[in-house]
Specification:
Cellulose_Degrad_GH3; TIM Barrel; Beta-glucosidase; single chain; Glyco_hydro_3_N_sf; Rossmann fold; globular; Immunoglobulin-like; Ig-like_fold; about 30% helix; alpha/beta; 3 domains; 6-stranded mixed beta sheet; about 775 residues; hydrolase
Length: about 775
């Protein structure tokens, strides 16, 4: 018999109501439970079977979702050998989905949620640059295309939701998850985050995947940059910085939100009703579902200690606005008991189940629960996805300095030394949340240079040292190689590589537990540092190569800013490549030899040393002048990035020069490529509210645009400024525009900006 909820012609709301009315209490609870997917199947001798202990749960509707069904990494224990190739991935998803639908009472499909921080975290998927590199492109349109490609690969294998993008604002880059963010500015973060939401969800219902914006909220504001530590910030700053990107992502249609592990002013985010209901739903109108981070419910009782036990933890979270638990441990063990004891009202349970079911209907899972294994295989082989990965890496590389025109290097060079721990280690180039990779899938910097120069040049390699090791025994060999060469490219930085057997993993959350520097990993989730200098003896390696007198280029491959003033002072040419993904080696070589003109700009400030932290650019005027030992200026500012060409700005105008809060003004500037090569420029617009009822930052990014210019070409760029750009959060926590004078700053570098004024007059409507 076909029930109304099976009728695709009916509105989603009616389908949900009909289905919910037919469900038992246990079936409703099942929709809120997300279990670890890699445990649900057995892959042995080429055959895929469902794990026996999962069959009964699937048949009674006790599993609403699987997390990381296709995930492969040290935490899951899934390797290249034991994991699933693209075609097998689709077959495995179909197997489990078919069992769930055909053997359960109501045939509700399972939601498969996957990690896609910078590409689907499964075997054979494209590995894109990490988000901090994506932010360095300042190109939301390009990033949207990349996210669309990620969605296509993921959905073709059966994944229908992902746990990205991360919208956390970085205040302290010692935080190990800095690489997963879009940096320190809320407007840049919002632009990149909404681009991700559009790209990931663009093919819905059958090609796209549900975006989950995370971590809600203020996860990047933790004390000391320590993962999950309390965020001690005020309500105005919370709304101005941390909530703004989330609000924009909800406006863009994000279907899911993940809670943060941390607390804000004593209230854990996972049980914060003001965040999850009052702001997210009642104020912003969010109509998707809220999922916890892995193990977060257990922390309410065992960590934050705001709940007496699992029953109370489940009740606190549900009543605050949580709808699904990643890992499912607390809901599976305690939620039925909480309902029976009246701690969780049936209406609250119904509300959460309805939200999950609604998203499943909107994803088209009831009409199209299965995927085509042949298509999964063909999508994974698309060359255009690798092209996008390379282009993103190119545009995300930041030329930090280039004294004496050291770059680009000549392709006529005959002997080049490629040195350093990150020159040829493919995993050190990829970042955290990366699956095992076959050797031929990754182009390292060494490989990219060899491919670029071909057989006419001799390219030799020396590691010199490892990322975290204090072993200096190979530094002499590296220096000798540099003396042989016409130029040396030294590739140093960090590592987020979770290599098998190298580290200890928290089996609940998957986070790294190691604090021992003998492990060659110094970045990633759970890997926070007390310093931002190069780990190990990497600086000594750079210094030894510099002392040979050979021309030196330093390339940083890393997940957080590197604070090394010595390198800035002594090395002429320095590139920040972040973790550039599987095509990163080609992209670095393209920049080094001038086939691509660098256009990246920093999305985060780089301090001279950690004693300056925080150094984000949008500080208050009362920030202070200097320390005894140093000033407060960073080594490199937010928005900084050089090019092989030069750009001139002229003709800055604001029209009209006087508006009311209900009006808009156009800001226009001319940009000319005054150099000899084509290039891309990021035009940045900042404002300052001169007099305000609450203190305001000295500068705030409000608009930006990336443009391409041929040599001698001029373009006119126009930005619109209105209420959204001029408003601020006042003492009543509302957003208002006050009359007064605004300074407008426009340019390609935050240290060299044209200025103009805009006057906002009192509206006659308010008189």
């Amino acid at each position: 018999m076909k029930y109304p909820y099976s009728d695709a012609a009916l509105p989603v709301g009616k389908r949900v109501a009909d289905l919910l009315g037919r469900m038992t209490t246990d079936e409703k609870i099942g929709q809120l439970i997300q279990l670890f997917g890699w445990k649900a199947y057995v892959h042995k001798d080429g055959a895929i079977t469902i794990a026996d202990d999962y069959k009964e749960k699937l048949a009674r509707g006790g599993i609403g979702s699987f997390y990381g069904f296709l995930r492969a990494d040290p935490w899951t224990g899934v390797t290249l050998e034991s994991g699933l190739a693209p075609k097998e991935s689709a077959e495995a998803v179909n197997l489990v989905q078919r069992y769930a639908i055909e053997n359960s009472r109501l045939g509700i499909p399972v939601l498969f949620g996957e990690e896609c921080a910078h590409g689907h975290m499964s075997i054979g998927a494209t590995v894109f640059p990490v988000p901090i590199a994506a932010a360095s492109t300042w190109n939301p349109e390009l990033f949207e295309q990349a996210c669309s490609a990620v969605a296509e690969e993921t959905r073709s294998r059966g994944g229908a939701a992902t746990y990205s993008p991360i919208l956390d604002i970085v205040r302290d880059p010692r935080w190990g998850r800095t690489e997963e963010t879009f940096g320190e500015d809320p407007v840049l973060c919002a632009e990149m985050g909404t681009a991700a939401v559009r790209g990931l969800q663009s093919g819905l219902p059958d090609r796209g995947i549900a975006a989950t914006v995370k971590h809600f909220a203020a996860y990047g504001a933790s004390m000391g940059g320590r993962n999950g530590a309390p965020a001690n910030i005020g309500p105005i700053e919370l709304r101005e910085k941390d909530l703004y990107p989330f609000e924009k992502a909800i406006e863009a249609g994000a279907l899911s939100v993940m809670t943060a592990y941390n607390e804000i002013d004593g209230v854990p985010c996972t049980s914060n009703r003001e965040l999850l209901t009052d702001i997210l739903r009642d104020t912003w109108g969010f109509d998707g579902f809220v999922i916890t981070d892995c193990g977060a419910l257990g922390m309410l009782a065992g960590g934050h200690r705001v709940a007496e036990d699992g029953q109370n933890a489940a009740a606190l979270a549900l009543q605050a606005g949580v709808d699904m638990e990643m890992s499912g441990e607390v809901f599976e063990a305690h939620l039925r008991e909480a309902v029976d004891n009246g701690i969780v009202p049936m209406g609250t349970l119904d509300q959460a189940a309805a939200r999950v079911l609604s998203v499943k209907f909107r994803l088209g899972l009831f009409e199209n629960p299965y995927v085509d294994p042949k298509r999964a295989e063909s999508v994974s082989e698309r060359g255009e996805h690798r092209y996008l990965a390379r282009k993103m890496a190119q545009e995300g590389i930041v030329l930090l300095q280039n004294r004496n025109g050291r770059l680009p290097l000549s392709k006529a060079i005959r002997r080049i030394a490629v040195i350093g721990p990150n020159a040829a280690n493919r995993y050190n180039q990829l970042g955290d949340y990366t699956s095992p990779q076959p050797a031929d899938a990754i182009v390292t910097v060494l490989g990219g240079i060899r491919s670029k120069l071909g057989p006419d040049a001799e390219v030799r390699y020396a590691e010199g040292c490892r990322v975290c090791s204090v072993d200096r025994s190979q530094i002499g060999e590296a220096a000798a190689l540099a003396r042989w060469a016409d130029a040396a490219v030294v590739v140093v930085g960090g590592s987020s590589a979770r290599q098998f057997g190298d580290n200890m993993i928290d089996q609940t959350t998957g986070a790294n537990l190691v604090q021992d520097t003998s492990v060659d990993m110094d970045t990633g989730e759970g890997v926070d540092r007390s310093d931002l200098a190069l780990s190990g003896v990497q600086l000594e390696l750079v210094q030894a190569v510099f002392d040979t007198g050979v021309p030196v280029v330093v390339v940083f491959v890393n997940g957080r800013p590197v604070s090394e003033p010595w390198i800035a002072e002594h090395i002429d040419a320095v590139l920040e490549a972040w973790y550039p993904g599987q095509e990163g080696g080609h992209a670095v070589a393209d920049i080094l030899f001038g086939d691509c003109n660098p256009s990246g700009k920093l999305p985060v400030s780089i301090p001279k040393n950690v004693g300056q932290l925080p150094v984000y650019y949008n500080v208050k005027k009362t920030n202070g002048k200097r320390y005894l030992e140093t000033d407060t200026e960073p080594l490199y500012r937010f928005g900084h990035g050089l090019s092989y060409t030069t750009f001139a700005y002229s003709g800055l105008t604001v029209a009209p020069e006087r508006i009311t809060a209900e009006d808009e003004a156009s800001v226009t500037v001319r940009v000319t490529n005054t150099g000899s090569v084509a290039g891309q420029e990021v035009v940045q617009l900042y404002i300052r509210d001169e007099i305000c009822s609450v203190t305001r930052p000295v500068m705030e990014l409000k608009r930006f645009a990336k443009i391409a210019l041929a040599p001698g070409e001029e373009k006119t760029v126009t930005f619109t400024l209105g209420r959204d750009q001029l408003q601020f959060v006042d003492q009543s926590l509302g957003r208002i525009v006050e009359p007064g004078r605004f300074m407008i700053y426009v340019g390609g570098d935050p240290t060299a900006l044209l200025t103009a004024e805009l006057i906002v007059e009192r509206s006659m409507k308010n008189n």
